[in-house]
Amino acid sequence: MDTTISAIPRKPKDGQIMIEVKHLYKSFGKIHVLQDFNLTLHRQENLVVLGKSGSGKSVLIKCIIGLLKPDKGSIIVLGESVPDLNEEKLDQVRMKIGFLFQGNALYDSMTVRENLEFPLRRHTVNYSQDQINELVAEALENVGLPHTTEMMPSELSGGMLKRVALARTLILKPEIILYDEPTTGLDPVTAREIDKLIVALQKKYHTASIIITHDMHCVKNTADRVALLLNGRCYTEGTYKELENAEDPKIKQFFE
Ligand SMILES: Nc1ncnc2c1ncn2[C@@H]1O[C@H](COP(=O)(O)OP(=O)(O)OP(=O)(O)O)[C@@H](O)[C@H]1O
């Protein structure tokens, strides 16, 4: 019996494609990281890219946001071909994408408010101070930390820092959020809270997300669909349940 899962994408909830990666190749010298990698992210979908350490998850994300140039292949983000964009156009596309970095990337010398104001001040829209205050308050409310506005990052726990970083990601109301190992380094209770938050925000803002992780609890709790990155390719994709029930040892190893 063939127990591998078909790599044909399931029918999306609605047809809109937010990110489409086709036949992507990226090598560093003799290290062939991505080889004919394919991925599609649909609107309102949480897609987990699951892969072992060093499998190329970060390289994939960097290609998607234009920080790395692929050797071959196409990357369409919100209708734009990322490798062909100049810096100005790339910035416009990046404005619509939120990133949650592993290290949170908050400025230690700035208060929570200042950290959240930062992306707003860089934005092409000129927000009034009242609008900025409202957006900061809303973003912190969304992550359950309305009381931290004037605090410094050093006064916050790991879980709180992650929430603040997420609030900063949300403040520009991105259409897509890219999560880089959102639960790494957090205790299990806090990690599960972050999972819940990811799903709650997806429901509230109808965002599409790519979540790269090897935390299987996070995968189970957040993924509408899982793409397995193995040997540079999307080896298979399916729901968590489908992959969990697969007999293929290459898939099984992730669930043991
Ligand atoms: N700029 C670079 N120059 C050379 N090699 C690189 C570069 N960036 C990544 N690599 C190599 O590409 C491979 C994939 O790295 P990547 O960081 O994407 O893995 P990952 O799946 O994100 O791993 P982890 O889960 O540990 O973060 C690794 O072998 C890494 O050494």
TrEMBL record:
Looking at the record, the residues that make up the ABC transporter domain are: 19-256
Kindly indicate whether the keyword Nucleotide-binding belongs to this entry.
Answer: yes
In terms of SUPFAM superfamilies, this protein maps to:
P-loop containing nucleoside triphosphate hydrolases
The record's listing under CDD domains reads: ABC_Org_Solvent_Resistant (cd03261)
Q: Which keywords accompany this UniProt record?
A: ATP-binding, Nucleotide-binding, Transport
Q: Which PANTHER family match?
A: PROTEIN TRIGALACTOSYLDIACYLGLYCEROL 3, CHLOROPLASTIC
Q: What is this protein called?
A: ABC transporter ATP-binding protein
- Organism field: Mucilaginibacter aquariorum
